[in-house]
What does this fold into?
Amino acid sequence: MSSGDGDSRVAGDPADLLLAVDGLQKHFRVHGSKSVLQACNNVSFEVRRGETFGIVGESGSGKSTLGRCVLRLLEPSGGLIEFQGHELGALSKRELRLLRKDMQIVYQEPMESLNPLWRIGNQITEPLRNFTSMSKAERHARAVELLGFVGLRPEVADALPGALSTGMQQRCSIARAIAAEPKLIVLDEPTSALPPETETDIVTLLGDLQERLDLSYIFISHDLALVRRFCDRVAVMYLGQVVEIADRDELFARPRHPYTQGLLGSTLTPNPRARVGRGDRRVRLEGEIPSPIDLPEGCFLASRCPFVLERCQSEFQELRVLSDRHQTRCWRAAEGDLELAPEDQDVPASSREEAG
Amino acid sequence: MLLSVRGLSVEYRQVGSANRTVTGASLEVPAGEVVGLVGESGCGKSTLALAVLGMTRRSGQIVGGSVEFEGQKLFDVSQGSSLTEDEWRAYRGREIGLVVQHPRGAFNPVKRIGEQIDRHYQVHSGASSGEARRRTLELLEQVGINDPQRRVNSFPHELSGGMAQRALIAMALSPSPKLLIADEATTALDVTIQEQILDLLDELRRTHKLGMIVVSHDMGVVANYCDRVYLMNAGEVVEHAPVERFFEEVAHPAAIALLAAQGVGHDHRAVRLRGLPVDTRRVPPGCRLHLRCPFASSDAGCSTVHPELSNFHDGHQVRCHRAADVTALAQAARPPAESDGGTDV
Amino acid sequence: MSVEPGEYGAVGDAADMGGERSGDAPLPPAGMGAQVKELLRRSWLVRIGLFLVAVAVLLAIVGPYLARFPLEEATPNANLPPSTTYWFGTDPNGFDVFSRVLAAPRIDVAIALVATAIAFFIGSAIGLLTGYYRGWPGEFVMRIADLIQSFPLYVLAIIIVVLTGRNFQNIVLVIALLNIPIYVRLVRSQVLSLRERTFVEAGKAAGTTDLNIAVRHVLPNGLSPALAQVPITIGFAILITAGLSFIGAGVRPPTPEWGVMVASGAESIIIGEWWISFFPGVAISLTVFGFAVVGEALRAVFLREV
Ligand SMILES: Nc1ncnc2c1ncn2[C@@H]1O[C@H](COP(=O)(O)OP(=O)(O)OP(=O)(O)O)[C@@H](O)[C@H]1O
Ligand SMILES: Nc1ncnc2c1ncn2[C@@H]1O[C@H](COP(=O)(O)OP(=O)(O)OP(=O)(O)O)[C@@H](O)[C@H]1O
Ligand code: SF4
Ligand SMILES: [Mg+2]
Ligand SMILES: [Mg+2]
It folds into this structure.
């Protein structure tokens, strides 16, 4: 499947394995032309029980598409997905539907993911209606309990989504995902509409649930500080490819791929006296992102990479194994050319300098 | 003054109850300045942003206040006056651009995004369709959407979350508004692209004197791009200050809690407001926050007297009886007890 | 017809931004209930429309009991002009035109309501299924719909009724059949765009079956245009019923029915006996007009909300 791609398997007890994605592809047809848009390109990774797997990457790099394909909410164009030992593509419609009890998703856009005509209480207990024999009253009680978890009042159960603020909608959609106590949740920017206080609460809640239920998360986010705080392993996506995949500490301390270095290098500190000065970053990616419709031949980053050499332009980059905890899709990085000193990579939540 | 909002109140009316989610909010935006609007989830930021344009969401009604744009009254509830629908057209979208918080929902799902942006521009500028398309392509390029030639043919659901958000920003900017209201407009974007967009806006601010209201919960964005910050809580503006003061001399307990959660501040990292946000249908007497506030004291009148927004410093107003003490106390204060802080998780 | 997001400027929430506003109403009420109220307050036309509809429906219920003379009993007093006894005059059979005008909705409005209900339910169901489960059956249904709609409806109606026999049921079924394609189209086009929405996928993620997603998530969100079409269909159905009866293909005389009545006086118009056709004619026009106005108003309210 993932021919030639570095082996993404992680050492460990195979019984620990919850999800294995192998060579996943998703292509979309482009209107008015024969070409295809390659939103996901040969993506392979594994998620263990109780683990939080982070996915970061630029807008449009295929993170949401990947998340939806993994749960087979979108039909992948190729590749294998094994969840709890079932190959999802081989299941019947009904089997797949019943398996959904164990795999849930929080969509990126809260407003869009809630039916405007359903009361919140019914909406967040929809999985319970389908997967359990709970009575209406029991479900309502559970809805109130779930709303309490995510910091919302019981009255919200009777509201329509349109009467909630975006942050409240987002928390409802989290409540729905945890309602049936699944094994895996794809969290697509689950706190993007939440202010820091609430974000902290939600992340704490997710952490508690993880411990209690041995839950795994695929955590899609562009908030690097949050990823660093919450994820065990992280994959970096660029143009539908995973360009780097590593343990959290390893990735943040020693990012190897130039794209990752660029990504980690940029952050806004909450300090008005240290407003962004440009050009002071170690790696800055300039120029156009290539279109996922006409992908370059060689390394996908070649047109933007400050370290580009001739070989990069022509040679397709495979995911290379650096260690059992670290793989990267860059030959220069693999040869150890591009190490960054760890102190250049500082992305904590509180990188505030004391100002005079 | 580009925009001045005075005493704006908005109510959502449902059978048997009225929920006044914005109460007497005042706000000013000078030309070429960026005003940040921050606050807890559900405190009324989006409601306020929309009300500036004389609009509300379903079942809402503007029940008080006035808005003036470049000296022209857009509406004034106390005088019962408002622009006519035709006159509004000259403001909504043209003079005042709005980027809403749910970008995909803002597009018509069955029309290509290029057409929609073209049309928005044409309606507001009278340009030909050729010109409109050129402008659309140029703007999409500027907001960092690659391959705009092909992207214009996409339907909204074919864009990624961040792309939809950027396409909406492009649409709002196309008629060159003088004021842009951006409601969490960069939340779906990674830092690199976020910066590109914010730099673009900053450029417009400098060259075209574009004024902005930026609703954001990202204190990084606020610190780096705003000139003045307004903090809302339970539908009221409870503090506003120039950005440096806001981050350093902040005086309202809600502001301290907000900054603490984002890791900004000195020794008061763990200051939090207790419990759930105030229910604006049943506001307590006195300070709306007194049941949640770690600094509340009955001697100061927190539980009996509703505090007014009063001058704390030059250009820095706070709605808190204890503002003067809070800054000092904040340094020393420890959270009352770990257990009763925060939402019930 | 639907409001373009961003059309009146405010990019975005435009669709939820409430109804028409005027200078004298300081600030806009939003929300469907408020919008309906606003519409009523502002538009006397809509109020008249609603009044006419209410009268028609009321007459359909109580009309026959208001008769001042027996409805189907011929008398020698034929072709009398309007007078204090016979307010609308009498017709060639000596029937009292006034009594019959009031009694006719029992037939006309009833046929229209039943036919519309059938068209609405069957059409919406077909529209939902063909839109949600795309594929050749849907295409096939759409071609049939095209076929039905490409015929001159009136002619088609006559042919079918003549072929199947003139009775109440057949007239109802023909009118329903003619209107089903309209509802199929309205619902289907909504469903085609709704099925791409994230909340539909969220239903799938929550383990809801396809059919349940279609019925519980998609349909309620796609029904507004079809609902707004209902009064328009009713008006149209009344017109067709009357038309069929007028040419003798519908309700049989002497049943009190507007088309029949217009027909019974058609020849007398030239000799100056205008009242026989005039009053039922006016009744048809007013009723159809009322439903049409209400339909348009509903569209204005509903389609803003889409
Ligand atoms: N239904 C679709 N049809 C066609 N193209 C699509 C569709 N869905 C996604 N795409 C394309 O696939 C690519 C990846 O989109 P995706 O939503 O996965 O990005 P993302 O990484 O989640 O970005 P963001 O951070 O902005 O949400 C984009 O180029 C997008 O335009
Ligand atoms: N259409 C509505 N009907 C009734 N109540 C509403 C409606 N829209 C919003 N509200 C209520 O008004 C309050 C303020 O909502 P608003 O959207 O302005 O919050 P916000 O500050 O923008 O929050 P967020 O940061 O989560 O977007 C919320 O408590 C919400 O429940
Ligand atoms: S007035 Fe009192 S209760 Fe209100 S914020 Fe200040 S200290 Fe807290
Ligand atoms: Mg996404
Ligand atoms: Mg909001």
DSSP finds twelve helices and 13 strands in chain B. The longest strand of chain B covers residues 17-29. Residues 106 and 142 of chain B are 20 Å apart (CA to CA).
